Amino acid sequence: MYTLYGYPKTRSVRVAWALEELGLPFEYSLVDLKQGQHLSEEYKAISPASKIPALSTPEGTLTESAAIVTFLAERHGMHEFIPEPGSFERAKYEEMMLFLTNELEQPIWNLAKHTFALPKEQRLEQMRDVAVWEFKRVLPVFSSMLGDKEFVCGTMFTMADILAGHILAWAKGSKLDITLDGKTDNVAAYAQRVLSRDAYERAWRKEMAHLPE
């Protein structure tokens, strides 16, 4: 059985979502960020960067949500949640995963870092403005890549949709406009479509059940 190390309302929900989509049982181990458990030597032995999520497997531990969900899909959902390795469709999947983590997510993460994640003395107010500007610049690119497709890779729901869905939910939670005043309505419709999946709802509820009081 897999063990997911995570904390509610973080990237660990991506892995929980993937596990739910694949119908895989897993144990959830809370890493209490507010108590600094991620900085403990015990957790650093699991995740040297002190970050979540991490996934314990019978073969070892994996970190980085994009790598984890890709591993799970290849191991348990080939042809259903991820294209065949070596195919053009797989190359487009990898292209989208890199775009999502390197481009679409970064402004939101920068906004979070300079709002609450970094120590107060390291936060820069102007960086929040830059992050919002960057998000407004990159969202139309994603809108163009998505077009009128049902999912980011076409008609197949893939692990890239899990990353995209979570990033857009994170953007909305950060009070960023994912419609850009009607210019990217296809993105808003897409977000509603993927975030209404039962597996996402189950993953969200399971994580929130571990939220410390």
TrEMBL record:
Alphabetic keyword roster: Transferase
The keyword Transferase is assigned to this record: yes
Gene3D superfamilies named in the record: 1.20.1050.10, Glutaredoxin
Occurrences of domain GST C-terminal (ranges): 86-213
Organism name: Alteromonas macleodii
Stretches of the chain forming a coiled coil according to its record: none
Similarity field: Belongs to the GST superfamily.
Name this protein carries in UniProt: Glutathione S-transferase
Molecular function GO labels: transferase activity
Top-rank taxon: Bacteria
